[in-house]
Amino acid sequence: DAEKALSLDSSKVDYYKILADAYFDNMHSNAAVKTLQRSLGRFPQEKALYLKLAEMQMIVEQYKDCALTLDMLFKISPDNPDGIFIRAQAREMTGDTAEAIKDFEKVVSIDADHINAYMKLALIKNRDGDQVTLKYLENVLRIDSLNEAALLTRAQFYHFRNEFEKALTEYKNALIRKPQSANINYNLAQMYLEMG
Predict the structure, then answer these.
(1) Are 160 and 187 within 8 A, CB to CB?
(2) Which of 11, 6, 84 has its CA nearest to residue 47?
(3) Averaged pLDDT, 5-22
(4) pLDDT (0 to 100) of residue 187
């Protein structure tokens, strides 16, 4: 259907996006990428096309192509937070955590409500046991007070450091907000076992 729509009217940028998504969702990533590359020839100022293409390239681990696509995006939109976020994800996936952190921090300096960047920073810093993890989680919960991943990570921050009383408080607070969360309930049960 998307191919037919595009053959009838190739002036609609959304048709390219729909076709690329249809290809990508059906395991035809090369066709999806080619569709978006073709669309950029027709709509070189359409930021959403660059973002979609870069994200697809990142997912299929075409990191160099992803970087080139983002470079083109940054020429027309230098401080695009979503583009910087994709670059940060690609850098994290390739093991360049220090540069990824800089990019995630740049994203939240541009967009103070970019919940995914705060969550990524929290998860990276939590691996190092850094207290700043809690600040990033506070920002996630400021934006979405029911964010399950942030509620769980905040409780685990104390749990995994054997600060069981603080962890218990956080798990109970999390369950008030998300009583049906299997992950939160499971982790709390696990902590009770550890406590004996």
Answers:
(1) no
(2) 84
(3) 91
(4) 97
